[in-house]
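Researcher: I'm comparing several assemblies side by side, and this is the next one on my list. It has 382 residues spread over four chains. Same procedure as the others: predict the full complex and return the structure.
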Amino acid sequence: MAATKTAGELLDTAQRFVQHRGFNAFSYKDLASEVGIRTASIHYHFPAKADLGKALMARYRVALDTTLAKLDASNRSPKAKLKQFIGFYRATQGMGAICVCGSLAADLETLPEGVRDEVTDYIKGSESWIAKTIKAGVDAGDFEPDLSPTAVAASLLAGLQGALILSRARDGAPEVLNSVEKSFFLTLAAS
Amino acid sequence: MAATKTAGELLDTAQRFVQHRGFNAFSYKDLASEVGIRTASIHYHFPAKADLGKALMARYRVALDTTLAKLDASNRSPKAKLKQFIGFYRATQGMGAICVCGSLAADLETLPEGVRDEVTDYIKGSESWIAKTIKAGVDAGDFEPDLSPTAVAASLLAGLQGALILSRARDGAPEVLNSVEKSFFLTLAAS
DNA sequence: AACCTAGCCTACCTGTAGGTAGGTAGAGCG
DNA sequence: CGCTCTACCTACCTACAGGTAGGCTAGGTT
């Protein structure tokens, strides 16, 4: 993925910045001083900030696909898979960060063209994986939701993204995320 | 509140910007050209951008309190009140905007000191009103949730904030918010 | 008439944003 | 050995960020 080591470090650092400050609140200068090169050198790897954004989001999306594919490959139950999925968000929260996708979605109107589509794709990808997994649980008789899997999926993702954002503003306590998780599994009914 | 007409217009405009672009993605220049004065004149009303942020958030919080007090004064059922509360978010979504509080919470780490606390207060205020209203519904026998009202409240607020952010990135379709609402009332059980 | 204040202005400052131009040291290859 | 490519550099540019200093004007006060 990351063509070179430096490019990788730049993306790592940029990702951290996005998850903590937002796309518009970090500069090439911030990146440069963190990675240990000059701002001009960043342009060698990412000619414009838009390119950095696109690359970052693309990588993040691939990472999601990989992670979910691995999860699917495991022989866990749908419920266990969903718990693990929520666990990823818990890990993010633990770092006092928010989701890259959530951060960028909040800044959506200010994003360069190409980045927006990546954000949209990421959301759709997440939702459809959740919905698919819920469906599997329904087929297995594990769940009996009163709402369509698609609706429950959308609701979960919104809850997770919102939980990360809100919990950070409330001393970073994990209760919000826990509540979202519990209420999600209750909506699925039948354990 | 707004001492003068211009100050009010500045706050209105700033609020729109925050709800669409985020606190770091609009400048005094943007404000000035929208309101029809010079950037320097804005400093007369709000010496620093931090002051603008504080004033904006303070006003937004007062507006919330007023709105909720009015809602409480009406003789509606807890369920109707909650539906109306969610309706406010739907209205925001209809404008392709996100919640001021959600936007600022996403930019939290970059906010000037005083603004952060206002954001936190806003969240706590919203959550506690929701929880209080749920409790009233429980006492009235309208709801029988399996989770504590506090937990359900946190989950709803997270869902609402997340829904605004995500739905805008998905062509602004209202389904996400609808799903959050439905799943919320299901969690409350017993209609 | 002399003054004060509110509300705006012009003009300017410093710092930083993203980005460009062109150069250079070193690795790898023919 | 000379060439080329990668990955960085210095030096610079324009635009804009938030903010300051000080002046003008209109409407009251006294």
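Model: For your comparison table: Residues 58-188 of chain A form a domain with the Tetracycline Repressor; domain 2 fold (CATH 1.10.357.10).
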